[in-house]
Structures are given as C-alpha cells and as structure tokens.
Amino acid sequence: MSARHFLSLMDCTPEELNALIRRGIELKELRQRGVLFEPLKNRVLGMIFEKASTRTRLSFEAGMIQLGGQAIFLSPRDTQLGRGEPIGDSAIVMSSMLDAVMIRTFAHSTLIEFAAHSRVPVINGLSDDLHPCQLLADMQTYHERRGSIAGKTVAWVGDGNNMCNSYIEAAMQFDFQLRIACPEGYEPDAELLARAGDRVTLVRDPQEAVAGAHLVSTDVWASMGQEEEAEARLTRFRPYQVDCSLLDRAAPEVVFMHCLPAHRGEEVSCDLLDDPRSIAWDQAENRLHVQKALLEFLVEPAYHHA
Ligand code: CP
Ligand code: NVA
Question: How much is the pLDDT for 88?
Fold first, then answer.
C-alpha cells in the first residue's frame, strides 16, 4: 500500500519533522488570531482507542473539526475488532471509508499490521513501544520557549517506557544528547539504544542525568497495561521522583515536561507542575496544533467539486 504512515518519528526525515514543528507554531498562531483554515473539509479520521485517553482523543478530534473535517471515535468494545475480526481485514474495510486512521493500541505490531493493509495514512496515537505524536508536541514546545533543541542535553528520569523510547528516536532525529536515568530492569528498548549510539547515555543516578540539562522530562511509573505492577513499581522508582531540588541541578534555563496524566507525589513532586520551569500545560495544548500540522501533511486535501 502506498499511503504514508506515522508510526514512529523514524517515518519522517529530520527536515520533515522540523517542518511539522514550524507548521504547528503557524497553525497555533492562526487559531489564536481566529482565522478559519479548513483544508480537510469532508475528510474523516477514524480513531481506534484500545486504551484510555484525554489529550490524544481531544486533540485529534478537535483538530480534525478545526481543519474542516470530522473524526469518529471507535472503541474495540463497540466494534468487531473487539470480537476478533482480523486487523488486516478491518484495515481494508476501514481505510476504504476513511481518509486517515489514528490508533492507540497495546502491541506495536497491531499498528504495523493495520498499516500494511491500509490504503490511507495510519497514525500511532501511542503503543506499548512508542508515542511519537507526544514527541512532536514536546519538540514544538521546547522550540517555542528556547529555540532549536539541536546540540542541547535532555534528561529522561524514570521508566524506560514508550515515551522514553520516543525520546531516543527524537534524540537521533532532532540532534540532541539524551541522558536516561532508570532503575535496573526498567531500561528502554535495547535495539533503539544500540542504534542511537553515543547520542544516548544510560545512568542509574537521576542527579547525574539532570546535571546541566536543558530539558528534563518524566512520565508515570506504571503505564497503561501495567496496573498490576503499579504497587511494586512505587517502591522501585521512589528515588526517581523529579522535584524542584533535582531540577536545580539542571541548567539555569531548564524547562520541565511531562506528557500527562501526572501522578503528583509519585514521578513528580506535588508542586513541580506549578513551578515556573514546568511547561507541561503548553506541552499538552501543543498536541492540538502540531497534530493539525501532521494531519495536513498526511491527509489528502479537500475534494474537488463535481
Ligand atoms: N499524553 C497523552 O497522550 O495523554 P492522553 O493519554 O490523555 O491521551
Ligand atoms: N507511558 C504512559 C503514557 C501515557 C500518555 C502510558 O503508556 O500509559
């Protein structure tokens, strides 16, 4: 199938990714000025959610509406996907009626299989392995506040999860150094780490990771699907909480990000999201703007009149 997909940051060139960030900033300005921009009139995005979501659902749904199109929310519970219809068959049928499909799923292989059978672009709205749309928003947010991230140092503190894996890809694509501090046994994807080479450093001590960093980011200690491990993880990750004093060890101009939802008092101290160095609310809002840029990039523009 020839459609262009966005399952990972590696599906775009660095130039394309930087163009998406710049376009996200432009689309944000257009919206702030109250300008209507509807290149996707009559286009329809299907959104399959196997896991819960606030930001991803809202940003894609509102984004499609703002671009002149529509979005349809599909949950496996209410579709034949949940009753065992094969992913490939579902992809053939769904992509014959839709103009793009966003999927939030457990196994990353579901996305790959769906994309292999889809005639229209497939977007990864989070899998167990990656969360590339969140990284687009993170990169836009950094750019807005501090300019280019190229050559900067980013610290990831906590679980080597889907977000951490996407930060490794971002380090390669946006040209920054990444230091990851995670407990033993909770490392990110080994293949990705090897691919990133000396661009990414793995340490155990959060203080070592954040020393002089320009961006510090973290995420929940138990991701969706790991609910049964949550209790054990609380103890294991306790030394990895990001708080104001840890942030004091970073560069004076450091910014803090969290993809949200946050568990205050666990991976972040209760006060950190309200610290002036935290830009997590902008980061959340930018999901809307940069994903509109992504939709504009991937989805064919409006139909012609007959
Ligand atoms: N950050 C993020 O993807 O949030 P949701 O789970 O609310 O979509
Ligand atoms: N790592 C988290 C991110 C949520 C947006 C999860 O997968 O649940």
Answer: 98
